[in-house]
Specification:
Elements (H helix, E strand, L loop, with lengths): L1 E6 L10 E5 L8 H9 L3 H7 L10 E5 L8 E6 L8 H17 L4 E4 L10 H15 L19 E6 L2 H29 L7 H12 L4 E6 L1 H7 L2 H7 L7 E8 L7 E6 L1 E5 L19 H16 L4 E11 L11 E3 L5 E3 L7 H12 L6 E6 L3 H7 L4 E5 L2 H14 L3 E3 L4 H5 L8 E2 L7 H10 L7 E5 L5 E2 L9 E2 L4 H9 L8
Parallel strand pairs: 1-6, 2-4, 2-5, 5-6, 9-11, 9-14, 10-11, 13-17, 14-18, 15-16
Antiparallel strand pairs: 3-4, 7-8, 8-11, 12-13, 15-18, 19-20
Helix pairs in contact: 3-4, 4-5, 5-9, 6-9, 8-10, 9-15, 10-14, 12-15
């Protein structure tokens, strides 16, 4: 889809549809909305007067102007109560408007972002609107062969600005939103791709392609190189599969040479059967999504490079399958990790923390200012927080605070769970240093407690994205399926300029 920013007046702009927003309970029309109402003979005022449109969140009305002005249709979308306004409300509103327009088989539409009396930067509004449109119109269709000709696409979205002085600001904001949205949809595509088409090698190839033409260095370690390093936790998980494991390393140097590195680590289990501790067959088909953290990390690094962010960034993705083959690791096995610490395997279905243990240790080679890992790690986090919230745990309060700030701006909700010493007691091993499961009680927390043992004392936050990584019910700008969660959150975190707790 082509995103354009132009100078001009929306009522005088030739377009198939003009999108305007209204707050709930407010009947007074101002600015461009008032002009559209006047030029259309009072169409907007009439639906307000009759109570057909109240402005409740994401309510939609489509009005036909019948040739009274160049705008063929006016699409009115509700923002809810003014006091509840947020960037995410705007994202949702434009996603719903775009979906309505697509359902009418309209090829393009326009807006002017005319929202009065809101203390919110215009460029942020533009970013939210563009993100809502692109993310809301996302479809995953590569494997569809039937009725492809019936699939509908919107070809263009135009933002009209009245003043030349704001044009460059809005154009830059729209371009930023395009890059961020493309990163999120890239992650969605990878997560949605079935495991026979997205093996660890395929994921490594996606990383290599992401590095091409960008200021990114991509290195992929194979099983032999990992064996030389002593990454026996990652290799232990990989033994059950014929697909070779890959350790993907992406390095982006956008900051000064003297600036510290921020390390992102993403779980890359391209299919998780549970191994010998096999999962129930119900919903096992969704286990292609167990590399959503790794997909997000690749997407964030490529977006950081495209945006030219002034940061030094390394993305590390340990990638493998977890299958119950003849050489598969077994409950009761003891693995010596890259850190030198030994791990007793209680269950082979707690494999994510094993591969992350070696990847987190590898991140320590960069002496990072911060380590953030993303992982579809535990069903326990879904039990605790549901499908819409990222579980956050970590060792550094400044780092956690900055992630919360980014969450507020992006709408990717995070909630902190405690990481007290009592939970660490539960992962102490009997025959080894640690065990890879502390049991069902507090499972998301004990998993994080396990990971903390391999972070080398660097500032660290763990994000458990098991709930929001794959949705069974659509949200306004997240269709059912892969969400790309974590991508926009971490890009915003990097844009905010985290440096050892200082901005």
């Amino acid at each position: 889809m082509k995103i354009q920013v132009r100078t001009g007046s929306l009522p005088e702009h030739m377009t198939e549809a003009a999108v305007v927003t209204l707050f709930e309970g407010e009947t007074g029309l101002t600015g461009v909305t008032a002009l559209l109402d006047e030029r259309s003979g009072g169409l907007i005022g009439e639906i307000l007067h009759r109570g057909d449109f109240t402005g409740r969140t994401n309510q939609i009305a489509v009005l036909y102007t019948r040739g009274d002005l160049p705008v063929k249709r006016i699409v009115v979308v509700g923002l809810g109560k003014r006091l509840d306004f947020s960037p995410d409300r705007l994202r949702e509103a434009f996603a719903r408007a775009a979906q309505q327009i697509r359902s009418l088989n309209i090829s393009e539409f326009s807006t002017s972002l005319n929202i009065q009396n809101i203390d919110f930067p215009l460029e942020r509004m533009a970013e939210a609107a563009v993100e809502g449109v692109i993310l809301g119109l996302y479809q995953f269709l590569p494997f569809k062969t039937l009725d492809r000709e019936q699939s509908r696409e919107v070809a263009g979205f135009t933002i009209l600005v009245a003043e030349e002085g704001t044009y460059k600001v809005i154009r830059a904001a729209a371009k930023t939103a395009e890059i961020i949205s493309a990163a999120a949809t890239f992650a969605r595509d990878i997560v949605s791709t079935p495991a026979n088409e997205m093996t660890p090698s395929d994921l490594a190839n996606e990383a290599r392609e992401s590095a091409k033409g960008r200021n990114i260095r991509c290195t992929v370690l194979d099983a032999g190189q990992m064996n030389e390093l002593g990454m026996n936790a990652l290799l232990g998980v990989a033994r059950g599969s014929d697909e070779p494991p890959q350790l993907i390393i992406l390095e982006y140097r956008g900051g000064k040479k003297s600036s510290p590195v921020i390390a992102l680590v993403g779980k890359g289990i391209t299919f998780d059967s549970g191994g010998i501790s096999i999962k129930p067959s119900d919903k096992m088909d969704q286990m292609k999504t167990d590399m959503a953290g790794g997909a997000a990390v690749i997407a964030v690094v490529r977006a950081a490079a495209e945006l030219g962010l002034p940061v030094n960034l390394v993305g590390i993705v340990p990638a493998t399958e977890n299958l119950p083959g003849g050489k598969a690791y077994k409950p009761g096995d003891i693995l010596k990790s890259f850190s030198g610490r030994t791990i007793e395997v209680v269950t082979t279905d707690a494999e994510g923390r094993l591969i992350l243990a070696d990847a987190l240790t590898y991140a320590g080679r960069y002496k990072p200012a911060a380590i953030i890992d993303l992982a579809t790690l535990t069903g326990a986090c879904i039990v605790a927080l549901g499908d819409h919230v990222i579980g956050m745990m970590g060792t550094d309060d400044d780092l956690k605070r900055e992630i919360r700030v980014a969450a507020e701006l992006t709408g990717e909700k995070v909630w902190e769970l405690p990481l007290w010493e009592e939970y660490h007691e539960l992962i102490k091993g009997d025959a080894a240093d640690y065990k890879n499961s502390g049991g069902r009680a507090g499972g998301a927390i004990t998993a994080a407690a396990f990971l903390s043992k391999f972070t080398g004392g660097y500032p660290w936050v763990h994000l458990d994205i098991a709930g929001p990584a794959w949705l069974t019910k659509e949200k306004p700008y997240i269709p059912k399926g892969a969400s790309g969660v974590g991508v926009r959150l971490l890009i915003q975190f990097l844009r905010n300029g985290y440096r050892m707790g200082k901005k």
